[in-house]
């Protein structure tokens, strides 16, 4: 446990559900964990007792990625964990593969409706169809403009051509819209939708005042910081500002709210964690400003922000994150963007800023 994590409380200690098992967390609320084929090797899912449209069963929040390992774990959850009860509704916090990967498979199997925000539904459909702009090949010129010239790395990224569709074989054709501030009934309780930006197009977290539980999705994670990247499809975006502003939307929640994150373990200490995350980004921003005394590409900033060796998958996230920090500093009038003859975008401190 790192020193920052030690400032949080984990009420279940190190207990986590085994693949295929479910763990009761609160009345009518269960936790399942699905495997992921990455260094980040799991995603948490939540099963809530429900009686939806007159159908008793469970509302599921997030589905796991569309891999054979996750399907196998689901068969055990369905048969043993929830004893053959149906899923009566599938809610997704956002469009990333570990959250919507099996949405089509599960909604079809149970005739369950799919609830998600419009922004996330649109992006999930676009990426599942590998449309130009959001597909993997579109990322290559974006990375090149930001200074990635290593041929082996570019080849490794090119080879991920079918990345999203391979993990998200289908997304339902229709959806029910989740909207910010909406109150939705799930079983005996009401949950408030809190949308968040910067990590994904229109992420939905869910807060239940009666249970004092926040399903945080990827917006607040206990051990790692949420990825905040500039992507090829929105090359001039300021996602870090969107993300930091979105954290402010959790300010009125109780300090002892039980936070259910998509990765890691349920914890208490929401406001401590948000303070840590703000501090983390402030430190990274300060480092970037210092480095930009002379013109720097985002690729040159990566080793300053990430002091470890990165594989191609990690580098794509790190580079997007470096651009996000550089862009915020441009929007704040601390850096300026320079176009060069070599086609690489560089960033330099505006004189007068120390
Ligand atoms: Zn995500």
Short recap of the structure:
Helix content is 34%, strand content 22%.
Overall description:
The protein starts with 22 loop residues before the first strand and ends in a 5-residue tail after the last strand. It has a 7-stranded mixed β-sheet. It is α/β, with parallel strands linked by helices. The chain is globular and about 65 Å long. The chain is 34% helix and 22% strand. Zinc ion is lined by residues 94, 96, 199-200, 218. Zinc ion (ZN) is lined by residues 94, 96, 199-200, 218.
Features:
single chain, 354 residues, alpha/beta, seven-stranded mixed beta sheet, five-stranded mixed beta sheet, 11 helices, 34% helix, 22% strand, binds zinc ion
User: What's the SSE pattern?
Assistant: EEEEHEHHEHHHHEEEEEHEHHHEE
Give the count of helical stretches: 11
Q: Biggest sheet, in brief?
A: 7 strands, mixed
Structural class: alpha/beta
Number of strands: 14
For the termini, the CA-CA separation is 35 Å
Please outline the helices and strands.
Layout: E1 23-26, E2 29-35, E3 42-52, E4 55-61, H1 68-81, E5 87-91, H2 97-100, H3 103-110, E6 114-117, H4 118-128, H5 136-145, H6 151-158, H7 163-167, E7 176-178, E8 183-186, E9 189-196, E10 203-208, E11 213-217, H8 239-247, E12 258-261, H9 270-291, H10 298-305, H11 312-331, E13 335-339, E14 345-349
Parallel strand pairs: 4-5, 5-6, 6-7, 11-12
Antiparallel strand pairs: 1-2, 2-3, 3-4, 8-9, 9-10, 10-11, 13-14
Helix pairs in contact: 10-11
Bound molecules: zinc ion.
Residues 94, 96, 199-200, 218 line the site of zinc ion.
């Amino acid at each position: 446990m790192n020193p920052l994590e030690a400032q949080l409380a984990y009420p279940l200690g190190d207990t986590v559900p085994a693949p295929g098992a479910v763990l009761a967390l609160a009345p009518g609320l269960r936790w399942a964990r699905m495997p992921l084929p990455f260094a980040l090797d799991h995603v948490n899912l939540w099963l809530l007792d429900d009686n939806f449209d007159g159908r008793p069963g469970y509302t599921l929040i997030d589905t796991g990625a569309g891999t054979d390992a996750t399907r196998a774990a689901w068969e055990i959850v369905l048969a043993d964990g929830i004893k053959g009860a149906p899923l009566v509704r599938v809610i997704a916090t956002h469009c990333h593969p570990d959250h919507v990967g099996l949405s089509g498979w599960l909604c079809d199997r149970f005739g369950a409706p799919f609830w998600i925000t419009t922004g996330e539904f649109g992006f999930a459909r676009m990426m599942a169809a590998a449309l130009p702009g959001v597909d993997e090949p579109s990322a290559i010129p974006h990375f090149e403009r930001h200074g990635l010239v290593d041929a082996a790395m570019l080849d490794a990224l090119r080879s991920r051509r079918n990345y999203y569709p391979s993990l998200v074989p289908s997304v339902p054709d229709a959806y029910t819209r989740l909207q910010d501030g909406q109150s939705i009934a799930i079983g005996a309780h009401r949950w408030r939708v809190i949308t968040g930006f910067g990590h994904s197009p229109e992420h939905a977290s869910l807060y239940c005042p009666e249970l004092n539980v926040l399903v945080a999705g990827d917006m607040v994670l206990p051990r790692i910081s949420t990825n905040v990247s500039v992507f090829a499809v929105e090359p001039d975006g300021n996602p870090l500002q969107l993300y930091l502003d979105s954290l402010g939307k959790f300010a009125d929640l109780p300090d002892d709210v039980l936070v259910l994150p998509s990765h890691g373990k349920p914890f208490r200490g929401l406001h401590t964690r948000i303070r840590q995350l703000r501090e983390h980004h402030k430190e990274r921003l300060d480092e970037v400003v210092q480095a930009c005394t002379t013109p720097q590409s985002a690729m040159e900033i990566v080793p300053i922000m990430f002091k470890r060796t990165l594989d191609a998958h990690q580098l794509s996230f790190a580079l997007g994150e470096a651009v996000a920090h550089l862009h915020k500093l441009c929007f704040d009038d601390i850096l300026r963007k320079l176009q060069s003859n070599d086609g690489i975008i560089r960033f330099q401190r505006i004189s007068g800023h120390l």
